[in-house]
Design a protein that fits this description.
Layout: H1 14-25, H2 27-34, H3 40-46, H4 53-72, H5 75-83, H6 94-101, H7 104-118
């Protein structure tokens, strides 16, 4: 007799990811960071609309970076950190770097700053 498989939760859930990112950063910042209309994150959050492939990739990147940031700092510090020029990122803000290069350099900057904070 075959063993039934457990139903797995979807890995990508735009409503959940959008809710988290908007809760921390605010609707306007998310829309600006993803270069979408300011009403779109609200539509994604409600399920009325799904993000485009480009916006979905950016949403996942923001979700990942925020999750990493919140391991180190609280939400208010995370919000400020993302929009402030950063020495580890050659003076660019983390949001600019996420848009241009993706999340990896930003995660490396988080790790570098966190290690200095705890040194």
């Amino acid at each position: 007799m075959a063993v039934p498989r457990k139903k797995q939760a979807p890995v990508y859930d735009p409503k959940r990811r959008t809710s988290f990112v908007v809760e921390v950063l605010g609707n306007q910042t998310v829309a600006s960071a993803l270069r979408v209309n300011k009403s779109q994150p609200s539509r994604w959050k409600s399920g009325a609309e799904a993000p485009s492939d480009r916006a979905a990739a950016g949403l996942v990147d923001l979700d990942y970076v925020l999750a990493r940031l919140l391991l180190v700092w609280d939400e208010s510090v995370a919000r400020d950190w993302l929009s402030t020029p950063n020495g580890f990122l050659d003076g660019a803000s983390p949001l600019e770097v996420i848009e241009r290069e993706g999340p990896l350099p930003v995660v490396e900057a988080i790790d570098a700053e966190a290690s200095e904070a705890y040194a």
